[in-house]
Fold these 3 entries.
Entry 1:
Amino acid sequence: MTILRTVLASLALVFVLGSGGGRAEEGRATQPLTIVSAEGSHDFQVEFAADDKARARGLMFRKRMAPDHGMLFDFGRAQPVAMWMKNTFIPLDMLFIASDGRVVQIHRNARPHDLTPIRAMIPVRAVLELKGGITAELGIRAGDRVRHPLFKAPD
């Protein structure tokens, strides 16, 4: 896989694959996801992007998103990941997540339409995109845990 393909596949924001949960504002299927932080547990409904097409589309062209909604990008295995904000109209917080569900890095308030790659500092399994500013508001930090069937429980 070329670097360009990796960047393009990992950039962006989604469609939905997945089961369970409710419906996003625009009628897309969602799944429950919880972030456990020192401040408590925070529940979200997320769309699930697990293939190249869904990851490439991501949250592009969305004009709004509820504070308890987001998108979870699954890359299948831990790997270098870069995201961007092409055609994305709302600020986003990006949580880079290890295979065990640990948040290893947060990029807060990514700027709409910015083409600058936002890179994970270490290989990650997934990226969770939430409404910009919500991680600061809820006290979510690196080291917090994400509960979702994608992540195996820590030993």
Note: The chain is about 10% helix and 35% strand.
Entry 2:
Amino acid sequence: MAIIIGSITTISVLSSNGSTITPASAGFQSVNWNINRQPNRLWQLGGWNPWGTQVAKTITISLTTYAEVLGVMALIPASSCANSTAAARIIINAQTCPAAVISIDEDLMYLTSYSYSKGDPVGFATENWSFQKWVAADGLGSGMYAIPAPSYVIQGRSEGSRSGDVGNGTTDLGARFLDEPGAWHTVEGQQGSVSAGFPGVGNADDVTLGLVDRVGDGKLEAGGEIGQSSATIPHQPLYVG
């Protein structure tokens, strides 16, 4: 196990063409990553040993930033066999104790979910970005079979929700609904809560759900206002030939 020292750990997020979306360590609160190999045992009759093991490998990275750090990412569903454009190159240089560097540099990390949150009327807003990539498994032993990297990763139509005064995709971004203003195929509900106290204070908000066509760049500071929005971006790996 290594202890990571955050004050000397750097993160950069770049677009797919290599241009910098944000400078290293500008406005990042936290990062989580996971390099995961998923075994699928091929069991057989007549014994307790598998005939073989099929292995898939994925890389996931989640970033928490202050609002306005990563800008806007358009969500464009696939119209042909082509990789999704909702992707980024993410570089993490994590400094550890004992002294070492854990270096992760992954291109074509596909955005799978986004959220914007400003829960305090006098506080600042944050954004959460989650990415995933499908890659070929490596370093396998005898009798183990790697699932290859997909030929394409296509993007589907994104669904999202929002409530409150900010992060609403109109006067400020967060999750913007398709064809907004005048967004279509949206539905509304309501949520609220209050607790006993002296005084007991709560809040109630309309909640709107719809199809989202872009996320990011939610307002960092909006005095006296709160809000939240989120989106799920479906990606499907395709294996061709």
Note: The chain has no helices and 17 strands.
Entry 3:
Amino acid sequence: MRILVIFVSGDNLEEYVENITMFRDFIDKRYSDCEVDYACILSSDSFDSLEKIVSLKYKEVNPKRQLSKMCDFITKYKDEFTYDWFIKTRPEIQLNREVDLSSLSLNSIHARAREYRGPKRILFGNSVGGVGYNRGYKSSTYSEKEELVALDDQFYIFHRTVIELGAFVPFIPEDVAEWYTPDNNKQEHEWVHSNCWKSRNILLNVIGIDILFERTSDIYAASGNLNC
């Protein structure tokens, strides 16, 4: 099995060297039987800190927002990709336990929930319900029927099948105003990601991922549990 880990960020990786090193060590240990490559998409040519930790198969400079970065990158290289699975992450992420890729469906994007109304009860399935900074936001509500899914955009997993289904076709924000909310200043936050994928008939699957999201300056948030 071949895996591509894609780091997506702005332009300052120096303060996240420890996080990235821990992430690399975890991936190398847990997926030692797989071939793992690394890619990075930054807003400026500032890859030095990362290249001291991992060997980068792909380096892209792109000043756009998170989702647009991913769409441009996937579109540019999709014809040469031979990977089975892709893991999109950010340098602030610490991954604490293995995600069993063999248990995941091939035609869905898999992540924690940022907002959810439905019946699933999942340990580590919530991106804002853990210890730390969560803006006091109630992100999940139990319902017998799954009524709403908005995936976390910090860390998500998808199979190459999802690329073939068109999940990452580039877009012009002005042409898809319905993906955005009036007050978000064109930020490509979690709801924009999920609205994009839903509009393209991509299935969204909430799973448990034990993550610590740590910005040394202002945010320290662990995965919470979904409806449990």
Note: Residues 167 and 200 are 6 Å apart (CA to CA).
